[in-house]
Design goal:
about 250 residues, 13 helices, mainly alpha, two-stranded antiparallel ribbon, three-stranded parallel β-sheet, disordered N terminus, single chain
């Protein structure tokens, strides 16, 4: 093996150590860890939460290998019963992100809860996108100010994202506008399949840096145009269900 190839392999291994260090120690090869990462599984939790048939569907992962990977991942990630007191302690540590409105925060029990999915719905021009823009900024605030001390991922399906709105919110909270914009990773989704693919990229970004919020505005818009009529209702619901399941998995991680 050439020196260049050795260096490349070492670099790949170092990249994998960020999410698969425990997996490598458990005997899962770097090659298999890379296959998992390429499939959008960038944490041990995501591997443990993934059904066997999905792992076995990854090119190069056999049924036997999938069984071993899941077994090792579930040794690392506790997936059994816990006492209610443990769950209560875990939930007491959850961070709530302020919406910028004291009244709305009160209604939501302190703001937008991290580690879960929050759906905003309402009629056209009722402020849903404005709240999303506000949250993209407030999630960067310190926890003492109602923030999450992290960056924001923003998936835009309708072309309504406007950076100037973020600058206005940043000015309100006394934040540096340029820094706020740099802390928002933005992507435009053009169809339902692309929307799902962006979640895979989001998972990779979240394994590399601290993100406290993922916004999808809006979640269902593309499904209304990509799937038509009752004949495609089952396919639409299955596709949307997979998208929401992936969102929930990212929240759990």
């Amino acid at each position: 093996m050439s020196v260049a190839t050795q260096q490349s392999q070492q670099f790949d291994d170092e990249e994998l150590m960020g999410f698969a260090g425990p997996m490598l120690e458990a005997g899962i090869t770097p090659q298999d860890c890379k296959k998992l990462a390429d499939a959008g599984l960038h944490t041990v939790e995501s591997v443990a939460f993934t059904p066997k048939k999905v792992l076995a569907g990854i090119k190069g992962i056999s049924d036997q290998k999938a069984d071993k990977i899941i077994a090792e991942a579930q040794k690392i990630v506790p997936m059994g019963f816990k006492s209610a007191s443990v769950i209560h302690a875990m939930r007491s540590e959850l961070v709530h992100i302020t919406t910028g409105s004291t009244q709305l925060d009160t209604l939501l029990g302190g703001g937008i809860e991290t580690g879960s999915i929050t759906e905003l719905f309402g009629e056209f021009r009722t402020g849903k996108s404005q709240i999303c823009h506000t949250l993209a900024v407030t999630c960067q605030l310190p926890t003492s100010m109602g923030g999450g001390e992290g960056k924001c991922l923003y998936i835009d399906t309708e072309g309504t994202f406007r950076p100037v709105r973020l600058l206005a919110v940043a000015e309100r909270f006394g934040l540096d506008g340029e820094e706020v914009l740099n802390n928002v990773a933005y992507a435009r989704a053009y169809n339902a399949d692309h929307q799902n693919q962006l979640l895979v990229q989001a998972s990779a970004l979240m394994s590399e840096s601290r993100f406290s919020l993922l916004i999808v505005d809006s979640c269902t818009a593309l499904y209304r145009t990509d799937f038509n009529g009752r004949g495609e209702l089952s396919a639409r619901q299955g596709h949307l269900g997979k998208f929401l399941r992936t969102l929930l998995r990212l929240a759990d991680e």
